[in-house]
Amino acid sequence: MNPLTENPGDGTPSRGLALVVDDAPTVRMYHGGVLRAAGFTVEEAANGLEALEVLLVNRYDLVVTDVNMPHMDGFTLVRRLRGEALSRSVPVVTISTESQESDAEAGYAAGANLYLVKPVAPDLLTRVADLLTAPLPSPSSASSSTTGSRS
Asked: Which pTM was predicted?
C-alpha cells in the first residue's frame, strides 16, 4: 500500500495528501478525521516549524493550519511556503479562534487561500477541501462544451 495514494485500511485511492498543523492534538485529530472521512490521506505537524520541515520534503495537495502556535505561527508558515518554489501553489487554509477582520486580512496577506474561524463545521471543511483540490477541467473538455452547432 502506498500511503500517499491510498487510505489506510480500505485500499481505496486517496483524494490527495493533506497536512494538518495545530499545536492542540485534539484539533489535529478533529480536522484530520474530517479530511480522512472526505478521502484524504492526512499527516500532522504540531507547529509551523515542524510543518515547514515536512513541507520542504513532501508534496502536499492541501495544508490546513492553525494561526497561533509556538515555534512558528501559521502566518509565518504560509509566508515561508509562498517563498518556496515547490510549495508556492499548494492550497492553504488558515483556521483560528481569532475572528476580527484584521486577522483574516493578515491571513490573506500572508498568502492563505482561505481564513476560517474555529470551530469549523465538518461539512464546511469538506467543501473547502473539495473546492481547493478539485482538478481543473482540461482545455479540450472546456472548448468542446462551447463549440457546438447553433440552430
From this structure: 0.82
Q: 61: helix, coil or strand? A: coil
Q: List residues bridging with 66 in a β-sheet.
A: 95
The C-alpha cell at 129 is 477541501
Matching residue, cell 485511492: 13
Q: Does 58 have pLDDT greater than 50?
A: yes
Question: Which residues are CB-neighbours of 148 under 8 A, at least 6 positions away?
Answer: none
Q: In terms of C-beta density within 10 A (0-12 exposed, 13-18 middle, 19 or more buried), how is residue 96 classed?
A: buried
Residue with cell 520541515: 53
Characterize the bridge pairing of strands 92-96 and 62-66: parallel
Cell numbers of 86, please? 515547490
Question: Which of the residue ranges 11-15, 27-31, 68-72, 144-148 would you say has the lowest mean pLDDT?
Answer: 144-148
State phi, psi for 107 to the nearest 5 degrees: -65, -45
Q: Omega of the bond prior to 8 within 30 degrees of 0, cis?
A: no
Reported as a pLDDT band with limits 50, 70 and 90, residue 143 is low
